[in-house]
Amino acid sequence: MTALFSRIKGMLFLLFLPCFCSAQPAPPLLHFSNFLDPSNMVYLRWDHDEQELMTFELQVHTTGWVAFGFSPYGELPGSDIVIGGVFPNGSIYFSVS
């Protein structure tokens, strides 16, 4: 997994993917978690259900945007990337590439 983010500052950006991806009810408790950086500023929680549907929650102290990638070998080329953030006017954007 690759987590890309700009210079870490004070705003907490919470990206909760299932809320954007489906009309399912709130997911159950997420059983797995880990900080992704030595400063404990990037926190990932996840779990999966019986159908192997994965749920992720990413909490990041950032300047307004965060990118989160998935790849078979942990490298950026060929990865699937989710990008989300907050514009200066307060509106939120979310993109998958």
Report on the structure:
- A hairpin with a 5-residue loop joins strand 4 and strand 5 (54-62).
- It is built from 1 helix and 8 strands; from the N terminus they run ββαββββββ.
- The chain has one helix at residues 17-21, and strands at 2-5, 11-16, 32-35, 42-48, 54-62, 65-70, 80-86, 92-96.
- The longest helix is centred in the N-terminal third of the chain and has 5 residues, at 17-21.
- Residues 1-21 have low confidence and may be disordered.
- With 97 residues, the protein is mainly beta.
- 5% of the residues lie in helices and 49% in strands.
- Strands 1-6-7-8 form a 4-stranded antiparallel sheet, with no helix packed on it. A 4-stranded antiparallel sheet has the order 2-5-4-3.
- The chain is globular.
Task: Give the helices and strands, then pairings.
Elements: E1 2-5, E2 11-16, H1 17-21, E3 32-35, E4 42-48, E5 54-62, E6 65-70, E7 80-86, E8 92-96
Antiparallel strand pairs: 1-6, 2-5, 3-4, 4-5, 6-7, 7-8
Domain DOMON: 40-97
Keywords: Monooxygenase, Oxidoreductase, Signal
GO molecular function, one term: copper ion binding
Q: Which segments are poorly predicted (pLDDT under 50) over 5 or more consecutive residues?
A: 1-21
Strand order of the largest sheet: 1-6-7-8
Number of E-state strands: 8
User: Beta-strand percentage?
Assistant: over 45%
Helix content: under 10%
Short descriptors:
5% helix, 97 residues, single chain, mainly beta, copper ion binding, globular, four-stranded antiparallel sheet, disordered N terminus, 1 helix, 8 strands, monooxygenase
